[in-house]
Amino acid sequence: MSSINHSQENNESYFSIDTFFKQIGIGEIIHQVNFKRRTPINPTEFIKWLLTTIFVRQSLYRAKEAPAFTTRTVRNFLNDGRINWQKFVCLLASAVIKCLRPFIDSRRRLALIIDDSLFARPYSKRTELLARVYDHDKHEFLHGYRALTLGWSDANTFLPVNFALMSSKDPKNILGPCHNLDRRSLAGRRRYQAQSKMNQVAVELVSQALKHNIPAQYVLFDSWYSSPKMFDQIKQLGLDGIGMLKRSTKVYYRYRGRLYSVKALYERLRSEKRSPKATYQYSCVVKSDSGIELRLVFVRNQRKANNYLVLATTKVSLHPDEIIQLYGRRWQIETYFKAAKQYLRFDKTQVQNYDGLCGHLAIVMMTYDLLAWQERQEKDERTIGDLFYIMGEAMPDLSLTDVLVWFIKLLNQLVESEPVAPIKQLNETVDKFISSLPQSIAFQLQKA
Asked: Distance from CA of residue 65 to its chain's centroid?
């Protein structure tokens, strides 16, 4: 009996993928991202097959080929430079957010989150645009890329909404071949973007997300992206930025008619003998060189008692406690990177074409969207990792459904040669039998 229950749970996973595709309208999304490859096979079948390879933790070269196409066909699909993978992720996230909107309280503050993570390729030599990139954890240079990622959060669910696979703007650090394609083409613009400045590309990702109806009021980022220019550009897009400032002596802010660096401003506030609050030390409003107003919040660093952190936002009307609470939401993108690398084969691919790498990242983000949607849709208290293992165990086993489909087809063949009365009784018996099965299996049998 336990083996039957296990098989039924397995088929639920395939049913979840089909339901997810129908709710987000995957066919319409593919049509909008410039898919022009002439093939009799529906491209949704390629995507479904790629999802299954991630769940069973197999590479494209070791995965079991589908009856209708080979793994080479799937690689050609990923390597197609005409497909706009960034737009694909944006439209996908927008559709998922639309499905989740009834579950989101209208008072929630929606935010975009910017961060990057190492996309390591330590054993690659001929991968396109491969570069020497700095690993901030190991404090050394490695071979790979920086996966610049834009995420969306409602404080409960996190969804990746855009990305850019960054190489290096310094030609000396680029190790792999670089194809100089026409910049008017999508593939050419994608490669040019990979060699641009990170902050500039981050603003482009935010702008593209807004054009595809991703709802947000704030943009969260850490000290690597915080600068007066960044806050100014985010403000011009109609959003408010919240970030952590570097305690640099080269950047000055105007406070009460005088210019101060962050360190000097902290000493100035200390000299005023203000009493620190329970959750933060000091807060004040300053102006940057461009004239934009920023509220700075000085927070005690919990790791170092004699140290402090500085948060800044263009939404000066926010209370310091609200600023701290909103910025704490930025940690969700770190949990996404951890889950993607641990479960979803984030940087474990053998594709060497740059377009193919972008396609691989888009499929990884889609897989995470599927798990996040399932967790929220069913009000599931299990983690993303738990759901991944359940889906992964389900993928290889379809024996029960295959046997039942064969059984129904055999009955239909027998019915054609029988008298009318037994046919009616047999059809009623089959209908009752199908209605007693789990919903996912019944759905597969009705299709068959």
From this structure: 26
Burial of 236 (0-12, 13-18, 19+ CB in 10 A): exposed
- Long-range interactions of 374-378: CB distance < 8 A, separation 24+: 374/16, 374/20, 375/157, 376/100, 376/103, 376/156, 376/157, 377/99, 377/100
240-244/140-153 β-pairing = unpaired
- Residues 369-392, buried b or exposed e (16+ Cβ, 10 A)? bbbbbbbbbeeeeeebeebbebbb
Dihedral sign of CA atoms 423, 424, 425, 430 in order: positive
Task: Summarize pLDDT for 152-181 with one digit per residue, the tens.
Answer: 999 889 999 999 999 998 889 899 888 888
Paired sense of beta strands 240-244 and 158-166, if any? unpaired
Q: Kindly state the greatest CA–CA separation across the chain.
A: 100
Domain boundaries, the chain: 239-317
Give the 3-state secondary structure of residue 301. coil
More confident residue, 314 or 300: 314
**pLDDT band at 290, cuts 50/70/90?**
confident
Beta bridge partners of 131: 144, 174
Query: In angstroms, rounded to a whole number, what is the distance separating the alpha carbons of residues 355 and 61?
Result: 18
User: Is 174 in a helix, a strand, or coil?
Assistant: strand
If residue 5 lies in a helix (H) or strand (E), which one and from where to where? helix 2-24
More confident residue, 422 or 125: 125
Both tokens of 448, joined, read 């068959």
Q: Read off the pLDDT band of 109 (50, 70, 90).
A: very high
Specify the higher pLDDT residue, 392 or 415. Answer: 415
Q: How far apart are CA 180 and CA 320, in angstroms?
A: 48
Distance of CA 1 to the CA centre of its chain: 39
User: Whole-angstrom Cα distance, residue 373 to residue 278?
Assistant: 37
pTM: 0.82
pLDDT score, position 292 = 92
CA 150 to chain centroid, in Å, comes to 8
pLDDT average, residue stretch 202-224: 95
DSSP 169: S
Q: 230, 206 in Cβ contact below 8 A? A: no
**Which tokens belong to 129?**
């645009």
